[in-house]
Design goal:
Length: about 260
């Protein structure tokens, strides 16, 4: 078995491309012959519906509650190499139910340890908040990938996220790294977008990926058909961007050679 890397995709702002990134980076990594688990930890369940799952089986709620082993709750998607731990709206109840548990921040880490999978990558789709679900993701992760949109107030809340990372390092996960920062929703026609790119690069330095995900209609449409962008329109600018991002991620990690797609 290859070493598994657990990456939490987190930013407490909504609409920055977390779910889009988990779905499509996961699909792109699978296209590069990596085995990937997309782990939906957001009660909105957009990653789950975006990957076409409409089943009635166990979800991340049952896994966090310790009712079902993580491996048993994992389902296949249409894409070879990309699996899913689905979510449902009842996951919002876990926020309240776990409050009294002294190990409430470590439930996901325990679940991954007690029922390990053989995926090379686990990409966790976090909710747009810094509550107990996101804490669980950060406590279980090797690193955090931060999507930031190229729009007004792009860096708003980033300092709060950085403080949360420090708290998680202190309390649960001293080895937590920043995997990288990916700029999303980029429109090259807007001078504002170019200013945001410069601002984020200044703030995060070399942690910012060279690959920038454009604002792309096809990318926005794909989830409503229950498809990743690679299935929906592999020639679109959005698909090309996520393939490039996967290649850059593998190159930065080292030891992973990106092989040709398809």
């Amino acid at each position: 078995m290859n070493h598994q890397r657990v990456v939490a995709v987190a930013n407490q702002k909504g609409g920055v491309g977390k779910t889009t990134t988990v779905m499509n980076l996961g699909a792109a990594l699978a296209a590069y012959e990596q085995s990937v688990l997309a782990l939906d930890l957001d009660p909105q369940s957009n990653c789950t519906s975006g990957l076409g799952w409409e089943g009635n089986g166990a979800t991340s709620y049952e896994v966090l509650e310790g009712l079902v082993p993580l491996r048993e709750a994992t389902v296949s998607t249409r894409l070879p190499g990309l699996d899913l731990l689905p979510s449902r709206r009842d996951l919002v109840g876990a926020e309240v139910e776990l409050l009294a548990d002294p190990r409430r921040g470590e439930r996901l880490r325990d679940a991954l340890a007690s029922s390990p999978t053989d995926h090379q990558w686990v990409l966790i789709d976090c909710p747009p908040s810094l509550g107990i679900l996101t804490i669980n993701a950060l406590a279980a992760a090797d690193s955090v990938l931060i999507p930031i949109q190229c729009e007004y107030f792009a860096l708003e809340g980033v300092s709060e996220l950085m403080r949360t990372l420090e708290r998680v390092r202190a309390a649960w996960n001293p080895g937590l790294e920043i995997e990288g920062v990916v700029l999303t929703l980029y429109d090259e026609r807007l001078s504002l977008a170019q200013q945001v790119v410069a601002e984020v690069q200044k703030f995060f330095g070399p942690a910012v990926y060279d690959t920038i995900v454009p604002r792309n209609v096809r990318l926005a449409e794909a989830p409503s058909f229950g498809k990743t962008i690679l299935e929906y329109d592999i020639r679109s600018r959005g698909a090309v961007a996520y393939l490039h991002l996967a290649e850059e991620l593998l190159r930065r990690r080292g030891g992973h050679e990106a092989v040709g797609v398809g």
